[in-house]
């Protein structure tokens, strides 16, 4: 089943159903902050949301535009903060939906709890469908380009004696780590003793174990 959008306060803790509905309604107030100030009819409301949608897409494409907020505030007869909060709320809705490319049905289910009119829900759905691919591409370009694993070579060296000490055992592990970064391969040579290497392995295994916990899965799901 395709995932649906969750309106959460933080990525660490998912709210209860009642808290989620409250948060969603609070997000809706920010999303459509100009709704109550321009409620001269459904047409005015839809026009206000359409203006917020245009600004939200421009925000993702080119970044914040204070002058555009001011122009929209004058046009809709509201204060600039209301416009900014509305754009940020709508941007959140579009980005979270586009990250996982949720279906039309899941998107409609996600915004159904906001209590909007059918016309407004259709407008939000169309705004999402028209821009989700571009938004996903923009998010992909903004994501950090981290090196990826390619290959690993290792060698174990043991020093058994020296001029000052005839009998000794001094092991050392040399590792050559090959990484891919933007199509280019880089190599890093590291050297450590076996005890430090074992400690590193234990820490990595513990980290992998943590990734299987529900807490980490919730965080990763919100980061995708």
Automatic annotation (TrEMBL):
PROSITE patterns: COMM (PS51269). InterPro entries: COMM, Commd2. This is Uncharacterized protein. It comes from Melopsittacus undulatus (Budgerigar). The gene is LOC101874106.
């Amino acid at each position: 089943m395709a995932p649906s959008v969750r309106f959460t306060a933080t990525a660490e803790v998912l709210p209860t159903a009642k808290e989620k509905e409250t948060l969603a309604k609070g997000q809706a107030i920010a999303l459509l902050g100009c709704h109550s100030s321009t409620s001269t009819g459904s047409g005015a409301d839809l026009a206000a949301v359409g203006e917020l949608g245009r600004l939200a897409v421009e925000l993702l494409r080119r970044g914040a535009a204070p002058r555009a907020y001011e122009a929209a505030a004058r046009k809709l007869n509201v204060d600039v903060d209301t416009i900014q909060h509305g754009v940020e709320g709508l941007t959140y809705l579009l980005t979270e939906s586009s990250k996982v490319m949720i279906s039309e049905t899941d998107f409609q289910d996600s915004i159904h709890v906001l209590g909007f009119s059918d016309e407004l829900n259709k407008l939000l759905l169309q705004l999402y469908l028209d821009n989700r691919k571009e938004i996903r591409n923009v998010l992909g370009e903004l994501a950090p380009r981290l090196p990826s694993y390619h290959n690993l070579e290792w060698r174990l060296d043991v020093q058994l004696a020296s001029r000052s000490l005839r009998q000794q055992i001094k092991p050392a592990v040399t590792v050559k780590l090959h990484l891919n970064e933007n199509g280019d391969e880089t190599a890093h040579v590291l050297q450590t003793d076996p005890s430090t290497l074992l400690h590193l392995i234990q820490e990595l295994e513990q980290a992998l174990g943590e990734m299987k916990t529900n807490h980490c899965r919730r965080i990763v799901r919100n980061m995708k």
